[in-house]
Amino acid sequence: MAITAQDVNRLRQETGAGMMDCKKALTEANGDFEAAKDILRKQGQKIASKRADNATSEGIVLTQVSEDGSTGKVVAVACETEPVSKVADFQTLAQTVLETAVSTNAATKEELLAAPQADGRSLQDHLTDLMGKIGEKIDVVAYESVSAEKVVAYNHSNGKLGVLVALDSTSGTDVTEVGKDIAMQIAAMKPIALDKDGVDAATIEREIEIGKEQARAEGKPEAMLEKIAQGKLNKFYKENTLLNQEFVKDSSLSISQLLEKTSKGLKVTDFKRVAIG
Fold first, then answer.
1. Domain range holding 229?
2. Locate the Translation elongation factor EFTs/EF1B dimerisation domain: which residues (predicted)?
C-alpha cells in the first residue's frame, strides 16, 4: 500500500523516531502502524545490543528533594557524546527517569528501569527506543537515595555532578546553608566515606602497606614502619573522610567541628556523590 507523508508524520509523532526510519518501518510493515512500531523498537534493541560495551562518559545528573525535605534522589543518565546530552529528547528522558524514581521510590536501579510508564511499557523500553532514534548507547549509570531529618541537594554547574547530604539532630535549626556548604565540599573534595569507620578494610590495608613501603624507601628502621604507616593512615583519614576533612571555606574547622558550631549535636548521617565522566 502507498505510504503517505501524513502516515509517516503520525508515526513520527507517536514514536519520536526520524522521518526516514518511520517511512522505512511503515513500508516494511505494509502500513500497519503497530507492526511499524515493533520494527522501530527492534531497531533500538539492535543498537542497544551492538553498542552495549561502548563507554558512556557524557550525560546529565539530576537531583530532587521531597517537599518535606526528608528524602532525596539523584540519578545519572549517560550517553556516548556531548551533543546527544544536549538533545531535548535526551534531557526529557533524563527528567522522566528522575520523576519515576521519585514517584515509585524504587529500591534499586533495576527496579527503577522496570517501572511501567504511562503507556504500560517499562522505563528501560523507553531508553531503548531513544537509542534506536539517536543511534548511541544510553544508560542509567547511577541511582541513589537518602533519607534524614533534612536532606540537601547540590548540582554542579556543568550538569554532570550531583550531591545529596543527609542531616539529623537539627534541633529545629535551619541547616540548609551549612548543608549546601557540605554538599559543595563533597563535590570538590570527593570523600570516600563519612568517617574512618566507613573505610573498607581493603583500602585500609592498602594504605598501611603504601605507608610502610614509603618509610622503607626513606631508610626508616623496620621496627618503626608500623608506627609510621599508622601516622600516614591518620593523614589519609583526614584528607579522605568527610567529617575529618578541613572545611574548604575555613581551614581552621573540620567538617565535624563545623556541624557542632552550627548546632550542638548536628550530624551528617549519609551522603551520595554521583558524577559522569
1. 196-261
2. 73-277
Same domain, 33 and 81: no
- pTM summary value: 0.81
Q: Is residue 191 part of a domain?
A: no
| Phi, psi (rounded to 5 degrees) for 133 | -75, -45
Per-residue pLDDT reduced to its tens digit, 55-101 = 899 999 999 999 999 999 999 999 999 999 999 999 999 999 999 99
User: Are residues 68 and 179 both part of a single domain?
Assistant: yes
C-alpha to C-alpha distance for 101 and 95, rounded to whole angstroms: 10
pLDDT one-digit tens code per residue, 53-68: 788 999 999 999 999 9
Sequential DSSP letters for the chain: -PPPHHHHHHHHHHH---HHHHHHHHHHTTT-HHHHHHHHHHHHHHHHHHTTTS---EEEEEEEE-TTSSEEEEEEEEESSHHHHTSHHHHHHHHHHHHHHHHH--SSHHHHHH-B-TTS-BHHHHHHHHHHHH-S-EEEEEEEEEESSEEEEEE-TTSSEEEEEEEE--TT---HHHHHHHHHHHHHH--SBSSGGGS-HHHHHHHHHHHHHHHHHTT--GGGHHHHHHHHHHHHHHHHBGGGSEETTEEEEEHHHHHHHHSTT-EEEEEEEEE--
